[in-house]
Amino acid sequence: MNKRIKRRLLWLGRRAVFGGCAVVSVFLLMSGYESITNRPLPWVHTIDKVNLVAFSHDYTFRVPPTSSTSSLYGNFGKPSTLKLPEASLRLNIVAPIKQNTTWLARAGTLQLLVPKPPRAGNIGAAFLYCRSSFRTISARNMPTVGQNIFMDTEGSWRYVYRVSSAKQISENQPYVPSDDGTQGKLIVDCNDSGQKVNYIIEGDLLSVQGIQQ
Fold it and tell me: How many structural domains compose the chain?
């Protein structure tokens, strides 16, 4: 291989590296823009739309208070993380995003809505929604009926729920939760917009425990 060819290959290699760095930089800038403005952009997917129409017949969703001491959360504080039966799956619970009439979700997190008032001092109905992915909930890691789910709060308390239902349904199919209003309820809905399905988990409250620090 002569020197001219070597110089040409070296020049092409440098251009490829610089081009790759530029693409990564643009992606990071666009991702930062999404995070700051809460506006989804094409091909970035830090924030995306989710379809919650399946629950529109039973629940009225509003953005909950940001204060961790709001009475809407009951006596034990605002939820902060959710631990699912799969050993490594602990998800952060964050504030929901609403753009006009559209609900949005951040990648890799659960968004909290509280459509019902407290019950016996506990959070009444905790509704957590997300985008389905390998980092959240999909067909691969759906829990089974009878397993426990743990939801920790900012006040160092832990809600323990027993899974009563775990289903995959069409994203536009109406879904009626089995919520009689007498005990604490957990509903997790992860929307897969590509497959147009919802992965829905229901849990019934078993107990509330203090978390040892």
Answer: 2
β-sheet bridge partners, residue 79: 153
Q: How far apart are CA 29 and CA 27, in angstroms?
A: 5
3-state secondary structure the chain: CCHHHHHHHHHHHHHHHHHHHHHHHHHHHHHHHHHHHCCCCCCCCCEEEECCHHHCCCCCCCCCCCCCCCHHHCCCCCEEEEECCCCCCEEEEECCEEECCEEEEECCCEEEEEEECCECCECCEEEEEEECCCCCCCCCCCCCCCCEEEEEECCCEEEEEEEEEEEEEECCCCCCCCCCCCCCEEEEEEEECCCCEEEEEEEEEEEEEECCC
> Are 185 and 90 found together in one domain?
yes
For 63-72, the pLDDT digits (tens) are 888 887 789 9
The pTM assigned to this predicted structure is 0.79
42 is a domain residue: no
- Is 125 inside a domain boundary? yes
Residue 123 and residue 87 share a domain: yes
